[in-house]
Amino acid sequence: MENEKVFRSRFSVLFIVILLAMFAPVIILTYKIIPIVVLTVGLFFFTVLAFSKIQYIISGDTLYFESVFYSWSVKISTIVSIKRSYNLMDYFPTNSTASFKKLKLQLMEPRNHPYSEDYFHVSPVREQEFIEILKTINPNIKVDVPDKKGIWRIWDWDI
Known about the structure:
Blueprint (H helix, E strand, L loop, with lengths): L3 E5 L4 H17 L4 H19 L2 E5 L2 E5 L4 E5 L3 E7 L16 E6 L11 E4 L4 H11 L4 E3 L15
Parallel strand pairs: 5-8
Antiparallel strand pairs: 1-2, 2-3, 3-4, 5-6, 6-7
Helix pairs in contact: 1-2
């Protein structure tokens, strides 16, 4: 892929806290059973590693998504709009992020994916650059991405 731009996904600190809250009780309840503790800790680190390997690649007129588990692509010319989303209900199957601060990309038609939705979520680290590149390739994309900041906005606590 020539002339490509690679963006890693944001990784939410809150996401890590939620994962810890899910795995900690198992470790606490089974701390004397070493194989279960080792398996649980290994599963936690594998989950964190898997989500930290999410990346978005823009090459030509195509946006590629790559992760440990699967990959897909979509033509940038089919993207109609980009909006901000913090909605926790918008997680699976249309989410390709490890963050609660996401961009919702609306498509003209459902993408070629097992979950045929006409939108999907991304959370690139260099968000403004990502949007600018998409707009350069497809100037018809409508962008509505307010960026609210503040110490109490825990959704924004990303790595």
